[in-house]
Please model this.
Amino acid sequence: MSYRFDSGADRSGGNAEKYALRQKLFGTEAVLPMWVADMDIETAPCVLEAVRRRAEHPVYGYEEMPDSAFEAQIAWMRRRHGLALEREWMRFSPSVVATLNVAIQAYTKPGEKVIVQPPVYPPFFKSVERNGRVVLSNPLMRTEGGDYTFDFDNLRSKIDTDTKLLLLCSPHNPVGRVWREAELRTLAEICLEHGIRVVADEIHSDLVFAPHRHIPFASLGDAVRDITLTAIGPGKSFNVAGLAISTVAIPDTEMRESFDAVYESIHFAQGTIFGHVGFEAAFREGEAWLEALLAHLRSNLAKLARVVARYPGLIHMHLPEGTYLAWLECSQMGLEGRALRRFFVEEAQLGLSPGISFGKEGAGFMRMNVAVPTDTMEEALRRLDSALGRFSGSA
Ligand SMILES: Cc1ncc(COP(=O)(O)O)c(C=O)c1O
Model:
């Protein structure tokens, strides 16, 4: 079966954040929005069909998330990622960010420290701060080749008795790393040694490009599993953020009970009737679509890399190992903060995420979301190429 990735449905007239916030964020609607992490690509036909079928039933009352939906995800996680999950460990969550907040409240007290490794998805540090906890920042380290890894020495030197939790982004937004087993094992050893629990945000785990392989943190043995909460869902990979559905897996009983105490005090209920059926369809029937999507994203990234390679004195990128987010290093352009953003908005007419929003370590970078249809990608590349061409000519 072939799927539609060459062009996409028009989202500009509706409530899509990516489009509706253009004026506010970029001061113009002329930019191609390639910022927030959702896709301008239609979701899988099996998801559309399941939601349509449910919409036709005229009663939209309370519904439980069915066991069959959890079972579909459990089977998917075993098959695709070698992670053995049990139904009893799993909870519904309307959002991975909500999960982060609940976990911070459940596993730390006000004033205690939570490890965050920037540059990273902004809610990682905002959730810690908004809950009155303290961010223990362990910035990612650049390797000789310019890629990122964890800074274990810095981490070891900063951990103290108030350090209780680590927020792991795996695969990592925005730098696109798919962490190797050795990197994860060292991180796990440090956490085990110091009694630090781990929230593994693995929402991007299905967006990994071969030969890279996502290794769930909780799959690193029983001891590691029992200090880990894993947050997963179809939001990114099936482009269903608007269905507001994800899950949480907490194998350890005590960790589960602490989580439940906060979770139940909020009353997340069970999600939406459309979320339940869309979620189950994605994990039961969506694998072929996901593989086709990955090939499309890989092709968009390769095209972007070819344009970037024409301007080695200005801009660099490492092909992401996972996620559809390209982390563009622009520091050699010699433009600071606002001027760099202005270049992308006014010269390239592209609405990207400024690297600085992922922490000060992101200064000089821009994050570009390439999860767009072929026609949009080609237009974006024309704009980027032409703006960089003019800039290099005038520099
Ligand atoms: C690492 C990461 N976690 C969580 C989210 C958001 O998840 P949700 O919409 O389920 O809160 C994103 C979205 O960009 C993300 O990149």
In short: The two ends are 48 Å apart (CA to CA). The first strand starts at residue 32 and ends at 33.
